[in-house]
Amino acid sequence: MSRERNRAESAAAAALRDLMEGGRPLIYICSPEEPRVRGLLDQAARSLRHGGLPVWSWTSTGGLCDPQGERRDTSPAGPAGVLEFIAAHRDPAIFLLLDFHAWMAADPEIRRRLRDLYLRCLDADKYVVIVSPLRQIPEELQHETAYIELGPPDLPELLGFLADEFQALERRGVAVDASGPVLHRLARSLQGMTLAEARHALRRALAIQGRLDAAAAPILQEEKKRIVNRSRLVQYIADGTELDHVGGLEYLKKWLMERRRLFLEQDQVSPEIVPKGILVMGVSGCGKSLSVKAVASCFGLPLYRIDMVEVFSGSHGSPDAAFAQACRTVEALAPAVVWFDEIEMGLTTRSSEAATSMGRIFAYFLTWMQEKTRGLFVAATANRIDLLPAEMIRKGRFDEVFFIDLPLEDERVEIFRIHLQKRGVDPGGLQLERLKKITQGWSGAEIEQCVVAALTAVRLQERPVTFEDLHRAAQNVIPLSKTMREQVEHIRSWAYDRAVRASPRPATY
What is the 3 state secondary structure string of 55-68? Predict the structure, then answer.
């Protein structure tokens, strides 16, 4: 009990306790985590009144069990029978009914009994808690039923879970480091998992290294990547990019470094000045995606990408429900950077179709950007920001709108150096300055492919790369700024005085 009081209360426990203290006798919890719900109920039961409330439970397979877990063979085991038992029970208690939604939906008598039971339990310190992985509340019971959708456990709940797990492992002789900083780091690594998934992740880490300490964090993060990516709606992006590996974009880098401190100190500063997110637009291949990965590395946060193609695929139900589910998933993973790639294609091209799920997605996104969980930084990319409506880009949604133009001469040389160094080549004697003229109008992606082509050619000949190899490869590149000149010029002219430039001045060619 003393350890319980010293813990910070989780959001789920607080929500459940508030409903019961408010006298709501009929509560529906949507969650597949039955053991977790039982733990939350036990926690709420201890806090409701002096001495606590007993918690009874019922399943269709196990019948009615008393607070000690003993089956009551003499009591009626069916759904109608357990409701009769609750109505006749004279003492205050909590009654946990598992998977009761099937009988609620199928049997009008059960629905009538629940409505009667609501009145019998009101102000009697008796609470009926229905737990189901599905939300199926009949229309007749909508007003009587308090609804909780249990998301993934938050940080306080995970810290309490880890404290209990480490204590149990320690009793078994397992080497653990249960210091505060270690538990906090591991809890961060487990965010977004269910408690059952977190327990399996801990067991895997224990099997790999034989103990649980700070070194287990990468193993837990790898397990989280596998679990998060399983839904396909949200993807964990592991290949972070340091700011130093992004060529040019000095204004964007400076902005990120300045806001980084505010984001990391968000608990000590006013919410109004905590960075919310950026919208990055620009010519294709100029480093928008790379910049988003650099944001995550700069802030020291994991990066999650919401896959809009998967949202609209129909594999997860209606697109608007799938999108809301994806947003709730990343909120449970906070603090994090959330990436919406090519946002103009995923949201706005369909948002004008009134009364469609796409229109509802657009409206939901605008509201979510205003009210999302603190600790989420949104990084959205777009090729055609001119397709976005004013509601999307007005101040308050994003902190800033950056335009990434074709790289300047010095930026192109820097990008050449970065890509050569990434591939183990010393650029010192390659006279990269001589490539400025021939690479006018090139994007960063085209520079990378030039490097790849040159290194491929010399690898086949088993010799070091030279300037002539790079020059020869460059002559075979036709940049997008020439093949799609009108479209590129349209994007650049639109952004000329409508967006903040990521580089000091526009490129000329």
Answer: EEEEECCCEEECCC
Q: 329 Cβ partners below 8 Å, 6+ apart?
A: 152, 192, 228, 231, 233, 234
Whether residue 448 contacts residue 289, with contact meaning beta carbons closer than 8 Å, is answered with no
Average pLDDT, the chain: 85
Same domain for 213 and 128: no
Residue with the bigger pLDDT between 22 and 508: it is: 22
For residues 6 and 274, give the distance between their C-alpha atoms in angstroms, rounded to a whole number.
30
Element (H, E) at 84: helix 79-88
Torsion of CA 235, 239, 245, 249, to 10 degrees: 0
d(CA 380, CA 291): 10
pLDDT in tens, 432-476: 898 988 898 888 899 999 999 999 999 998 899 999 999 999 988
Give the DSSP letter string of 233-295.
SEEEE-----GGGS-S-HHHHHHHHHHHHHHHTTTTS-GGGS--EEEEEESTTSSHHHHHHHH
For residue 451, the enclosing domain spans 409-483
Contact (CB, 8 A) for 381 and 292: yes
Smallest Cα–Cα separation from 129: which of 100, 102, 97? 97
Separation between Cα atoms, residue 169 and residue 485, nearest integer Å: 64
Phi, psi of 225 (to 5 degrees): -55, -45
Q: pLDDT (tens digit, 9 = 90+) per residue, 315-334?
A: 787 888 888 888 888 887 87
How many CA atoms, within 13 angstroms, populate the side-chain half-sphere of residue 221? 17
- What pLDDT is attached to residue 351? 42
**pLDDT of 96 strictly over 60:** yes
Q: What's the token pair of residue 452? A: 């790849």
Quick one: how far is CA 31 from the chain centroid? 18
Q: Is residue 418 part of a domain?
A: yes
**Rounded mean pLDDT, 404-409:** 87
**CATH number for 428:** 1.10.8.60
Count of residues for the chain? 509
d(CA 443, CA 286): 5
Domain count, the chain: 4
Q: Specify if 468 maps to a domain.
A: yes
Taking the C-alpha atoms of residue 126 and residue 120, their distance in angstroms, rounded to an integer, is 9
Dihedral sign (CA 26, 32, 35, 37) = negative
Whether residue 162 is found in the same domain as residue 126: no
Mean per-residue pLDDT for 96-122?
93
